[in-house]
Amino acid sequence: MLSKITNQLQREKPLKLMTHVVAGYPDMATTVQTVKLMEQCGVDIIEIQLPFTDPIADGPTILKACQKSLDKGTTVNHCFDLLDALQDVHIPLLFMTYFNIPYRFGIEKFINLAAKKKLCGLIVPDIPFDEPEGSFFKKTVAAGLAPVMVVSPTTAKKRLETITRHGRGFIYTTLKTGITGASASISREGLDFINYLKKKSSLPIAAGFGISTTEHLQLLKGKIDMAIIGSKLINDFNKGGLSAVAAFLKSCRRVCEAR
To answer: How many domains are contained in the chain?
Structure first.
């Protein structure tokens, strides 16, 4: 299923969109509706976050969504069951999680089930790259999944070189140092790091952490291959439901497709 990501990113759109949802927020039925709506609105790839008690890379919006999902009793198995309800979604789906979850579930069991459920990749931002002989990465690739690597402007150069050698699908870079969350502006630091990253990797570059306006997308066009939007969409849902999410995504798609 790694090939599905590659094919999607090779489609002739000037800027792709990846969106982020928290499984089970506000409930599983709404998560299914949200993912299908996102596909209808022209989203190219969707990352589904498994709720976790200590999502260290996430800001308050996603943290609250994770906690509310957990309060409803969402488990890892529920998240895998969610994929059964998304079999008619044709764009690539990835799981985003923290390493403690697959570790406790059983790494090989987690990866094999992800492949069986036709996921396309896994995003695990806190995994140590030297995790025992890189077994997580090797097993993920062997299962046909993309181990999508997350980097930031503060990633050490030596680690960055290793990541760009072993990453698959695309490189996920943050546009700022710290946690996720809608931002008023895109930092110069983030833009400079994108330019640096392009010199280090031939993989498509996806950028997130702070994208919350169509002006942000306009600024990023021509600089990255895919924009990642998460907290902004949860905030929109909290204020105006799925119709607000759809309205913003449609405006994003117009910006992405404009020549």
So the answer is: 1
Whether 82 maps to a domain, the answer reads yes
Range of the domain at 9: 2-254
Neighbours of 243 (CB within 10 A): 11
Check 39, 44, 47, 236 and give the catalytic one: 47
Residue type, 168: R
259: in domain: no
What confidence tens digit (pLDDT) does each residue in 143-179 have?
999 999 888 888 888 888 888 877 789 999 988 554 4
> Is the pLDDT reported for residue 36 higher than 60?
yes
As a whole number of angstroms, the distance between CA 47 and CA 25 comes to 14
In a domain, 222, yes or no: yes
State yes or no: is 47 an active-site residue: yes
In terms of C-beta density within 10 A (0-12 exposed, 13-18 middle, 19 or more buried), how is residue 67 classed? middle
- How confident is the model over 45-64, as pLDDT tens digits? 999 999 988 766 677 899 99
Distance CA 248, CA 172 (A): 22
Q: Is the pLDDT of residue 222 over 50?
A: yes
Q: How many CB atoms lie within 10 A of CB 254?
A: 12
Residue 116: which CATH number? 3.20.20.70
Catalytic residue (one of 58, 81, 131, 161) = 58
**Mean per-residue pLDDT, 219-240:** 95
Per the prediction, the chain carries an average pLDDT of 89
Radius of gyration of the chain (CA): 17
Catalytic residue flag (residue 54): no
Residue 95: inside a domain = yes
Helix (H, G, I), strand (E, B) or coil at 150: strand
C-alpha count within 13 angstroms, C-beta hemisphere, residue 45: 36
